[in-house]
């Protein structure tokens, strides 16, 4: 067995959420060593991954990645993301659908606007089946030693304002829009867990409380 040769090019980072990551390269002669050898570099962080590639002379360059969260970060170290989008929604869900029906008429049997409006004029709404509606997903990402109890509570329930959403100053002219807590994404990172909580913005009339009144994990 060859003696592992440490290479230049150690790289590392510390994320906003407090996760430290270090990648250390070294060289060995054989594939078996590339798969199994873990030299002592004096790094106390947990080893989380190993990558290697064969060099032109037949040896192997190996990179070991270590990750650790030393202390639970404060709440202000969270990462926030607001993903705004447009979706093609049925015209019946439009907030002013009642007015649209009165203006252009509505064929209840066919569930569509008729060719002519109530004045028997050609209707500009004929053929309109959908409209573009604004939607959004709000994400809060943190790194913790363990999964906080609140992460898996309240999934599938309505909240007026997720923690941290106020900084985005989202207009809400009618005051009826709210948010639905979605399922989180949880991933092990060294001795810590990376947690992304998601909240879905409702349509103009809000999420229906009779459907989303109770948590889906109880």
Provide a brief overview of the structure.
This protein has 218 residues and is mostly beta strands. Helices cover 6% and strands 37% of the residues. The protein has helices at 31-36, 97-104; strands at residues 5-6, 11-14, 19-28, 47-54, 60-69, 79-90, 130-144, 158-159, 179-181, 185-189, 192-201.
**Quaternary arrangement of the chains shown?**
single chain
Helix content: under 10%
The number of distinct helices, counting runs of at least 4 residues, comes to 2
Describe the largest sheet: 6 strands, antiparallel
Please, could you describe this protein's structure?
The protein has 218 residues and is mainly beta. Among the domains are: 65 residues; 87 residues, no CATH class. Helices cover 6% and strands 37% of the residues. The chain is elongated and about 90 Å long. The relative contact order is 0.16.
Secondary structure layout plus pairing:
Layout: E1 5-6, E2 11-14, E3 19-28, H1 31-36, E4 47-54, E5 60-69, E6 79-90, H2 97-104, E7 130-144, E8 158-159, E9 179-181, E10 185-189, E11 192-201
Antiparallel strand pairs: 1-3, 2-3, 3-5, 4-5, 6-7, 7-11, 8-9, 9-11, 10-11
What are the main properties of this structure?
218 residues; 2 helices; 11 strands; mainly beta
């Amino acid at each position: 067995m060859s003696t592992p040769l440490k290479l230049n090019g150690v790289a590392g980072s510390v994320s906003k959420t407090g996760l430290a990551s270090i990648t250390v390269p070294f060289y060995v002669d054989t594939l078996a060593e590339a798969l199994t050898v873990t030299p002592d570099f004096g790094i106390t962080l947990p080893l989380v991954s190993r990558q290697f590639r064969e060099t032109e002379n037949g040896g192997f360059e190996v990179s070991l990645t270590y990750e650790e969260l030393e202390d639970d970060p404060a709440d202000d170290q969270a990462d926030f993301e607001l993903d705004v989008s447009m979706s093609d929604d049925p015209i019946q869900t439009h907030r002013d659908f009642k007015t649209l029906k009165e203006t252009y008429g509505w064929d209840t049997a066919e569930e569509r606007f008729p060719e002519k409006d109530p004045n028997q004029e050609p209707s500009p709404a004929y053929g309109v089946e959908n409209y573009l509606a604004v939607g959004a997903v709000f994400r809060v990402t943190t790194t913790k030693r363990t999964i906080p109890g609140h992460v898996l509570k309240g999934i599938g329930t309505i909240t007026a304002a997720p923690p941290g959403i106020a900084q985005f100053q989202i207009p809400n002219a009618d005051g009826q829009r709210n948010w639905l807590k979605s399922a989180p994404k949880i991933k092990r990172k060294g001795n810590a867990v990376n947690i992304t909580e998601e909240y879905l913005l409702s349509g103009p009339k809000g999420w229906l409380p009779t459907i989303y009144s109770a948590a889906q994990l109880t």
